[in-house]
Amino acid sequence: MRTWLLLSLCALLAACAAPRQLAQPPEALFDDSLFAAPSERVGADEIFRVSDAMRRYLQDPQVEAQLRRKGPQRGLLEALYTSGELKLDYDASTTRNAAQAFDARAGNCMSLVVMTAAFAKEMGLTVRYQSAYLEETVSRRSNLLLRSGHVNVTLGRRLADPRFPVQETTMVDFLPPDEIRGLRTREIGEQTVVAMYMNNRAVEALVAGRIDDAYAWSREAVRQDPQFLGSLNTLGVVYLRRDALAQATKVFSHVLDRDAENLTALANLAGAYARQGRADDSLAIQLRLAKLEPQPPLHDFNLGLAAMKKQDYRTARDLFAREVARADDSAEFHFWLGMANYGLGNLESARRHVARALEASNGGQDRDLYSAKLEWIQARGGR
Fold first, then answer.
1. In this predicted model, what pLDDT tens digit does every residue of 334-375 receive, in sequence order?
2. Which of 375, 381, 332, 318 is nearest to 140 (CA)?
3. Residues 6+ apart with CB under 8 A from 257
């Protein structure tokens, strides 16, 4: 039976809020002796840094004219995302800082909002971050289950700008309007945003197998905001990947001391106990978890994979279709729904879902697999 490690990932990001008193980071949870130095620079100072190229973009005559005509907030957003000049591409695989996203003209939602916030702060606009309450989505990468949350950014006018005395605030969100309408939000501080960014970098390092980098990023995320439990959980998973079971147990227990119903920490602690041979402790945690979450993440997906092994393609198709209905942007869900349809002889449906998987993929080996399978299906009559 495959064991999945749960991680919290802030897939969508944003900008600055009222400061709050942060607790001191729990230094006793860190064990630097288990890890080598990271292979990349780890720190907060580059996240919102505005590069010379970004400043030159703001000084472009067309952009300046748009800012004057439409006001700084609306003008900035249209210059970045509406006019099409930057030709930004969505790249879910990589969390980039502001300058990197601008240079690459690509990034995930966190990267794009970090870049937006950096431009806004360079222009002297006020910025606020909000964490939105919406149903978490769960995906999997490299034997990791990722729970994704959501954050957006609000741009306010300059503190003293007589040219636009009545302009209010503008919220930036990369979800469709019908998905964010009515969502409850809470304001978060910039320390939390930085912790979320670093946590994303830690998760990406884990997926790539760079355990030392993952430790460095998760440790710094915890130091930025010890109250953001997502980075603490990631730190615990890093310890599990290094087979440091006692350290991992200490971290997950610390999270549960803060939030006794934290599903991610409960699942990971149960796994840590099992690996230590503490079967009774593991079972007790699993029973607690089952009461809080009767249907575990990817329940239908895993049943679908089991059905595929039995060549029960009809059952597999129905199970994968449920997952696709829940998370239409999951490349893996679409791929397996396509393969179940292929097993049933539904070549056109198979082609359509594998093509959707290719479109939604993050690159790398998965993209190569989806591309090869799509060509294979088309060669057999899928149009």
1. 888 989 999 999 989 989 998 988 887 765 567 788 888 888
2. 332
3. none
Residues 6+ apart with CB under 8 A from 347: 341, 377, 380, 381, 382, 383
- Angle separating helix axes 313-326 and 331-343, nearest 10 degrees: 160
- CA dihedral over 178, 179, 181, 182, signed as positive or negative: positive
Residues 305/336, Cβ–Cβ less than 8 Å: yes
Measured CA to CA, the distance from residue 332 to residue 321 in angstroms comes to: 12
End-to-end CA distance of the chain: 37
Query: 196 near 179, Cβ under 8 Å?
Result: no
**Whether pTM exceeds 0.85:** no
3-state secondary structure 9-51: EECCCCCCCCCCCCCCCCHHHCCHHHCCCCCCCCCCCCCCCCC
Q: Where are the beta strands (DSSP E) in the chain?
A: 5-10, 89-90, 106-107, 125-133, 137-141, 144-149, 151-158, 170-172, 184-188
Domains and CATH numbers, the chain: 5-215 (no CATH), 299-379 (1.25.40.10)
Kindly tell me if the per-residue pLDDT of 164 is higher than 80. Answer: no
Could you give the 3-state DSSP secondary structure of residue 138?
A: strand
